[in-house]
């Protein structure tokens, strides 16, 4: 265990409310509840700004853990899977945003918005939980 870097803590805590917005977005989309557009927009823009913000932070040299984290082969593989799923989630979210705004504007459904909803929801949970699990194991337990 080592001290958690601030950036990781911000992401680990900051993503928790997105779970609520995603759950509402999926259920409200499927069941025709009110506020779907709001919770969908909040979920996607919140998640995108956090994940893209984190990637930019790392790309410009932001340190996370530095050498405190010993990345063994297995942990590296875990991170690669986590990162790959997170990347797919970003692409799905952009597609959800585009199709959502598009069908909002034209006032009739776009099949891909519905088709992508459940896979995105599932993959979002995989990315979220695998990230939280790593945070807990590396910095909390
Ligand atoms: C990114 C922002 C989003 C926008 C602007 C948006 C917009 C819309 C709009 C305009 C509709 C038509 C029904 C309505 O007006 O309530 C809709 C339906 C739907 N949305 Fe979204 N949405 C977004 C995000 C999401 C997310 C994140 C999910 C699921 C994880 C989702 C799942 C659905 C589903 C399942 C439907 C029903 C589709 C159908 O029956 O054809 N949406 N959305």
Oligomer: single chain
Q: What is the 3D form?
A: elongated
* Strand proportion: under 5%
Number of self-contained structural domains: 1
- Biggest pleated sheet: none
Helix/strand order: HHHHH
Provide the structure class. mainly alpha
Mean pLDDT: 92
Ligand list? protoporphyrin IX containing FE
Rg of Cα set: 17 Å
Given as residue ranges, the uncertain stretches (5+ residues, pLDDT < 50) are: none
Give the count of helical stretches.
Answer: 5
Q: Helicity range of the residues?
A: over 70%
| Count of extended strands | 0
Q: Span from first to last CA? A: 7 Å
Task: Give an overview of the whole structure.
With 141 residues, the protein is mainly alpha-helical. The protein has one domain. 80% of the residues lie in helices and 0% in strands. It contains 5 helices and no strands. α2 packs antiparallel against α3. The longest helix is centred in the middle third of the chain and has 34 residues. The protein is elongated and about 50 Å long. The protein starts with 5 loop residues before the first helix and ends with a helix. The mean pLDDT is 92. The site of protoporphyrin IX containing FE has 23 residues, from α2, α3, α4 and α5.
């Amino acid at each position: 265990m080592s001290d958690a870097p601030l950036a990781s803590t911000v992401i680990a805590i900051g993503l928790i409310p997105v779970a609520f917005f995603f759950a509402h977005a999926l259920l409200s989309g499927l069941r025709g509840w009110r506020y779907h557009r709001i919770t969908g927009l909040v979920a996607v823009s919140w998640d995108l700004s956090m994940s893209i913000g984190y990637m930019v932070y790392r790309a410009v040299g932001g340190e996370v853990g530095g050498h405190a984290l010993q990345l063994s082969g297995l942990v590296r593989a875990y991170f690669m899977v986590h990162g790959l799923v997170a990347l797919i989630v970003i692409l799905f979210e952009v597609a959800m945003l585009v199709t959502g705004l598009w069908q909002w504007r034209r006032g009739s459904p776009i099949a891909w918005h519905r088709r992508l909803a459940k896979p995105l929801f599932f993959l979002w949970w995989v990315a979220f939980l695998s990230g939280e699990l790593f945070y807990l194991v590396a910095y909390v337990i």
